[in-house]
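Dear H.,

Thanks for agreeing to be a second pair of eyes. The structure we're designing against is below in token form, covering all 345 positions.
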């Protein structure tokens, strides 16, 4: 485990909502006298974490949504963001793209820019204190009943590009709300120069990954693992050069796959798909990005060379301007060589 904390890392797929410290959640519940059955850090952890009895992505999301009980109080999102970046720094993440869905944290009369500003302020404060680079991806929801909300969100996200917003994402029910519904929204995001990543092929069909690439101009895909069932889809993704942000433990917990043994990360990697590793919702899953790298070694037999390749895939797919991306890659290449010299697998 120690060696994976040392590994210099990139994390492109983490949700702020699933990365709240149980200690912080407990403190806020007490401070704001929220009526919840938790009194200790351990109870807070259990309240936010999967128990193993979840049967679907919906059950998993229910756990994540528990943080809404406190997230709307003043300054809380800033604190969440600050602590998430601090936690990333402690796991030797060199570059983090964290994402969140602003609409879900709105207090009455607030504009959607307010939660975005709070999160950006938290990220800035942590970047000021620690030598880590972190950026923000703004998340829309497929099932938002009012399409104008997602259109507004793109405009607001784009307005904060010079303050750290680098990407636009959409999550939610892939089967009932297909990519074609969101063409206009993503065309606008692209026009503004935002990086495009789309949750697709997680529990939904592999075809929705292709739809996200073709119809929404996705630069990256959140999960995308269901393409593994069809060689034609794998070939299309490979040809498009699109990076998959894969989060194996989350996929087990959401029942996207039945177990690590049936997870296709190794196969996709060997087929030449650019794979980056994320932790998705570390608090909900009870993991961190270092333990997820350990999973690569222990469950999927990745050697140190392959682990380094996964880190670099993340850097290459970062939503950074070319010169900054090149600097990140060069620095990581050096640090990864040093890391590799210290490990023996
Ligand atoms: Zn996700």
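And this is the sequence the design step returned. I haven't edited it by hand at all.
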């Amino acid at each position: 485990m120690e060696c994976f904390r040392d590994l210099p890392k990139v994390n492109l797929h983490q949700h702020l909502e699933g990365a709240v410290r149980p200690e912080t959640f407990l403190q806020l519940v007490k401070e704001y006298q929220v009526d919840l059955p938790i009194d200790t850090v351990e109870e807070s952890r259990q309240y936010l974490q999967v128990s193993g009895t979840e049967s679907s992505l919906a059950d998993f999301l229910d756990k994540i949504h528990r943080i809404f009980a406190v997230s709307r109080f003043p300054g809380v999102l800033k604190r969440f963001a600050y602590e998430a970046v601090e936690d990333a720094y402690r796991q030797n993440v060199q570059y983090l793209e964290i994402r969140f869905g602003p609409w879900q944290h709105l207090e009455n009369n607030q504009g959607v820019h307010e939660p975005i500003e709070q999160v950006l302020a938290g990220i800035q404060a942590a970047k000021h204190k620690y030598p880590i680079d972190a950026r923000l991806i703004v998340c829309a929801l497929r099932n938002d009943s009012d399409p104008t909300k997602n259109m507004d969100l793109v405009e607001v996200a784009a307005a904060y590009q010079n303050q750290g917003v680098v990407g636009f994402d959409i999550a939610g029910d892939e089967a009932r709300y297909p990519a074609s519904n969101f063409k206009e929204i993503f065309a606008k995001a692209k026009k503004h120069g935002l990086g495009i990543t789309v949750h697709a092929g997680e529990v939904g069909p592999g075809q929705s990954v292709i739809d996200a690439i073709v119809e929404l101009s996705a630069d990256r895909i959140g999960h995308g693992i269901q393409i593994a069932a069809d060689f034609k889809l794998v070939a299309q993704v490979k040809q498009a050069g699109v990076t998959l942000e894969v989060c194996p433990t989350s996929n087990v917990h959401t029942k996207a796959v039945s177990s690590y043994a049936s997870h296709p990360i190794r196969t996709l990697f060997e087929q030449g798909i650019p794979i980056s590793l994320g932790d998705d919702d570390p608090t909900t899953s009870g993991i961190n990005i270092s333990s997820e790298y350990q999973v690569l070694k222990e469950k999927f037999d990745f050697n140190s060379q392959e682990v380094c390749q996964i880190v670099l895939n993340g850097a290459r797919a970062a939503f950074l301007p070319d010169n900054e991306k090149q600097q990140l890659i060069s620095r990581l290449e050096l640090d990864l060589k040093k890391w590799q010299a210290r490990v023996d697998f």
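Two observations from my side: The CA atoms of residues 304 and 341 lie 9 Å apart. The chain has a mean pLDDT of 96.

Warmly,
E.
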